[in-house]
Amino acid sequence: MSPAPESSDPVLAALVERDRFLAALADRVQILAPKVLAGRAAVHAAERRMATVPAATVAGIIAKLSLALECLEKPSDDEPTLEVHAVRSAIADLERLSREPA
Fold it and tell me: I need a surface site. Which of 29, 45, 54, 90 has the fewest CB within 10 A?
């Protein structure tokens, strides 16, 4: 009886190892996917509430602007847009004003 091909050929052995890993990963993804989707739905629902419910405090306004800023910012090395600068400035202004005595 000849040895299994994967034991004599390192490329085939690596292929078998990769296939086993991918099969195990697929099993885990099937288990986790519904939880991830439910979590994403909860996050989106909370973001919709943040965007539509009136803020009752300056901290609430800052939270809304921070959410908007996350949507405006792009993960790149480009110069931030005017909109990003304006929202950052508004957040800084509100934070400063909220610390000043009334």
Answer: 54
